[in-house]
């Protein structure tokens, strides 16, 4: 093919494809007065890949692994090798096109591997990430409580309680006590009102004779049922 003609109105003809294109569509080259090379970017990429494959074959004696074409709206997961729609990839602001590199199943598996490799397990990762302490500190705090829930005294509590405003760890509670504080929004005033409410609406059993009890009526409320 003949050499490219002189630039015309900010355009140039590519040596390979022969098309006239704007200079911005050509790769940068310090050897040309205009600062642009003789090949448009797509043709330059084809030439560059062919040169790389040739050098790889001459030096190592092996071919370049070619990846299959990916249709629009899809992406190929490099881990499982499957081509899937973009909806099957997790969102990632820093990723190409706003999606992660690996599909969701592979992404989850890699996340589990990372947690196991870096933290020894998911629980250690969860404690470190959310509360700033590890399993060792958890067990030390539980031992200080005597191995029971800090509120009800139940055995084997597994929930780390923390102040939602400051993030400071307060103690270790059972599921019900931890959930109860959350439902009352960690408010002493709400809890005090709840105690007052229970005292004013709960029927009390009073011992009036050895082995004989009498139900005392609260200030308000209905009488207890037969099963009470």
From TrEMBL:
Q: Which organism encodes this protein?
A: Micromonospora thermarum
- Specify the protein name: Recombinase
């Amino acid at each position: 093919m003949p050499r490219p003609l002189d630039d015309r109105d900010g355009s140039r003809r590519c040596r390979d494809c022969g098309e006239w294109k704007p200079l911005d569509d050509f790769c940068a080259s310090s050897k040309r007065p205009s600062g642009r090379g003789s090949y448009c970017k797509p043709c330059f990429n084809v030439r560059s890949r062919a040169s790389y494959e040739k050098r790889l074959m001459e030096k190592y004696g092996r071919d370049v692994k070619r990846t299959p074409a990916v249709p629009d709206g899809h992406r190929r997961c490099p881990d499982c090798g499957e081509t899937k729609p973009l909806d099957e990839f997790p969102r990632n602001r820093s990723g190409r096109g706003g999606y992660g590199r690996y599909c969701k199943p592979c992404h989850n598996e890699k996340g589990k591997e990372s947690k196991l490799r870096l933290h020894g397990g998911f629980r250690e990762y969860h404690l470190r990430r959310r509360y700033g302490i590890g399993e060792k500190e958890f067990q030390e705090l539980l031992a200080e409580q005597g191995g029971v829930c800090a509120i009800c005294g139940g055995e084997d509590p597994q929930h780390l309680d923390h102040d939602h405003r400051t993030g400071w760890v307060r103690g270790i509670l059972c599921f019900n006590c931890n959930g109860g504080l959350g439902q009352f929004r960690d408010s002493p005033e709400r809890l005090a009102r709840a105690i007052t409410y229970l005292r004013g609406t709960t029927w009390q059993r009073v011992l009036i004779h050895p082995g004989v009890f009498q139900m005392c009526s609260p200030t308000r409320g209905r009488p207890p049922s037969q099963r009470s």
